[in-house]
Write a structure and sequence with these properties.
This protein is of the alpha/beta class. It contains eight helices and ten strands.
Length: 289
Amino acid sequence: MNLWNKSQEISFFKNCRNFASPEQLFNETGDNRYLAYWPKNYNGKKTTLQSRNTLIGNYTEKWVADLFKELINEKDLHVVQQAQIPAIGISSNSPADVVIASRNKKVLRPEDVKIIFEVKMSIVWNWEYNIATRSLTEIGDYRSHKGKPSFTRSDSILKAIGKCIDIRVSNLSASKIPLIVLGNAPMSNGFCKKADHLKSAGIIQGFWSLNPFPLNHGNTRKITPKCGFIRFDSVNELKSNLDNIFEENLNFFSGMENPAQLGKLIETANKENTYQDKGLKFLNLINRS
C-alpha cells in the first residue's frame, strides 16, 4: 500500500484507455503530440481540456476510499463513497466524496459519521502519450507545465472551503464531525495562512497532501506552523494522524458575543465539577446563546 505517486497516474491513464479517447485525456499539440498538460514553453494553439476532470475525480475518490479501507481494517468502521447526510445538508446533489462511518449505508445520520473527506486530487506530473506504441512518458513535474494541480489551484481550494463551511453551519449535529480536504500537491503560498486559520477556528481539521514526492528533484512544504496543511510521507504517518482524529472527540463551536455575556457563560460553566463537564456545559450554553 503506497501513497500517491507516478504509478497511480500511469494506472489512471491505462484504465481510462479502455473507454476514453486520447482526445478526452490529453491536449493535442499542433504537431500531433498528446500531452497531459500544456508545457510552459508551449506557444502553439491551445484548447481547454474538460473531459478528464470527471474521470480523474472518480479515480481519485476510489483510490482514497481503497486506501482508507486498508487503514481502518481493524476497526468496526466502513468507508462510504458519495455518501448522503441529509440532516447536515449533504444530499444527492452534492454528496460527500468519501466518509468513514459506523454504518455501511449511502444515506447516513450525522451520528454515524466519524470523518468526512473532500477529495481535491488531480494529475500532478506531465505525461506524453504515444498513439503508435500506446505508451506513456513522464516529461516533467508540475513546475514544468501550465496546469494547476490539486492544492496549487485556488478555485479548487475555495470550493472545498465553501463546502466545508456549508456543512459546519448547516446544523448543530455537524459540530462533532471532523472535515478533512485531501490533495496530492503542495498548497500554494497564498493559502497556507488561511489553512492554519481554518484549522484553528475548527472549521476544517486539515488540508492533507497524500503525495510524498510531487517534484522530480527538490523538496516541498511539509507542514504549516499550525498544521492546517500537512504533507504525508508514509502510510504509517497518515494512519497515526487519522487515529489522532478518531481519539480527539472534537467539538466545533462558534459565536459572536460581547465580553460580559461570555463572562456569564464561563461563570455558569465553571460551576461544574470536572474539566470535561465544564467544557460540555460551556459548549451547550454558547450553542444556545
